[in-house]
Amino acid sequence: MSQHRIQELELIIERLNSIGIHLSTQTNSDELFSFILEECMKLTKSDGGSIYIKKIVDKKAFIEFSYTKNSSKTFPFSKFMMPLDKSSLAGYSGYTGEICNFESMEMTERIGLTHNKKFDEENDYNTCNMLVVPMKNFSGQVIGVMQLINKKDDYNYILDAAKDCTEHIKPYTREEEELISSLTSQCAILLERNTLLNDIRKLFKTFIESLVTSLDQRDPVTAGHSSRVAGYSVCLAKKVANAKGPFEDIEVTENDLKALYYAGLLHDIGKIGVKESVLLKRNRLTDATIDALRHKCQVLKYNLLYEANQFTKDEIADILDTFSFISHKEALLMMNDNEKKMRKFIKENASLITSKLFETLETINSSGFLPEENEHFLKLAASIEYLSDEGEKVKLLSQDDLKNLNVKRGNLNGEERKMMNNHPLYTFDVLKEIAWTEHLNQVPKLAAYHHEKLCGKGYPWGLKEDEIPFYSRILAIADIFDALTAKDRPYKPALSIEKTISILQEEVKANNLDSDLVKLFVDEKAYEDLNKIDYSSLY
Ligand SMILES: [Fe+2]
Ligand SMILES: [Fe+2]
């Protein structure tokens, strides 16, 4: 073997090695095909090449002209489809699985086809010879066809259409047929691997989306919260990636962003485990209970109008005491414990008294904070009774009603609050059962720690500052930001950005949120990027 041939083979081996390394890491199909096409052209010193990909449309097989390159000319490119049958050169090779090596284009007659010169004529090009190779996958099925044209004696030589067909054109060798066949098969196998990977990703994406949808359906009022929290979190993490100062040493990788995105989507998934009566509770009492109270106040009104004599003096005084708290205080004081006057007053004002009573209960029911005077009112109201249909005296407010109405802040009583505050525990329990890949194995913790506070007073674990992961801190900011600014909650108006920012800054002062992250979120207006992120890259 000549020294020149040895050198040539060594170069081929070197090239094949580097192709192998590159192929094994390539997960983008477009890049994979472009790369393999160019490498096959270089290996065979071809002037041009194309790849056709097999497609099934309405159960019929086609090949689509998908990628093309040419060293000597630039051709206009647009995709088109041809039947996968013997009616075209590429179709023939794909259909039969045969490698077709045409030393000259007249040789296509061997397979009963005439080379169509229209393309060459229109583009002032001259196709002199051609190697057509089927791309076969692991099980030998054709997934596409590679077509190489015009093998040259020097890859870098620019062909002149008019005269170069004999001068610089060389025939494709048997060795090259095998080489290209082997490389295109590798490519086909990788494509199948990529397709499989994409299918798995798609499967997982739809699985996560359907989990989030089922949460949204349980509580339609907060629908969209999980997706927005995921979005705001990614916006902030991307700002971190480009920030200097305290974030200079923090490297935000693609995998970090993915894990954060999943954690954002799933952070409240544990709410699936919270009873509906608690999850959907908007006020201190349920809608059914407040409706029942309205009815009871009506009954009380008729009691006072028509059956006032059945109430003792003390009971009448109780009702008046409550009423004096809400209205006509002076008039009542003037009665000075005169039973007759009291009964008369009660009868004349039955409607007013009971409607005021119900209005006050309704106000307490829906207010976020219970002022002291209302606490006092509830103490008085606790003793009011009405006469049931059976003529029995029944307390207007049950022990449960009183417990719920007496909640100082918010709408949930102690037990309900505990159940609600345990949702991150359920989030963790649900997510830890998923077989996360290595780069996503932090998702359960990142998601579950979103209500932890740096001061250690968060819930449900009460973690200390150094126990709260960086990306959970991001999630905590995004969660609060969306809860305050969400426009779709009928029971709670959305706050302005300014007001929301000032609340976030209060949270920093209370050592609940990370000060550097809140500063970055606010200074860089990370929240404005919500609709600018390419979410498809995060799956
Ligand atoms: Fe939460
Ligand atoms: Fe949340």
Structure description:
Strand 7 and strand 8 (393-395) form a beta hairpin. The chain has a 6-stranded antiparallel beta sheet, with helices on both faces. The chain has a two-stranded antiparallel ribbon with strand order 7-8. Helix 2 packs antiparallel against helix 6 (174-218), helix 7 crosses helix 20 and helix 11 (313-326) packs across helix 13. The chain has 22 helices and 8 strands. It is of the alpha+beta class and 539 residues long. The chain has helices at 3-25, 29-44, 89-96, 118-123, 164-167, 174-218, 225-242, 254-266, 276-279, 287-306, 313-326, 329-335, 339-348, 350-366, 372-381, 399-405, 414-421, 423-432, 443-448, 470-485, 497-509, 515-523; strands spanning 46-57, 60-70, 80-83, 100-102, 130-136, 142-151, 385-387, 393-395. Bound molecules: fe (ii) ion (2 copies). Residues 225, 229, 267-268, 479 line the site of one fe (ii) ion. One fe (ii) ion binds at residues 225, 229, 267-268, 479.
Element string (H = helix, E = strand): HHEEEHEHEEHHHHHHHHHHHEEHHHHHHH
Q: How can the largest sheet be summarized?
A: 6 strands, antiparallel
- CATH topology of the largest domain, by name, is Beta-Lactamase
Report the count of strand segments. Answer: 8
Average residue-wise pLDDT:
89
Q: From the coordinates shown, what is the CATH architecture of the largest domain? A: 2-Layer Sandwich
Spatial sequence of strands, sheet with the most strands: 3-2-1-6-5-4
Give the tally of structural domains: 3
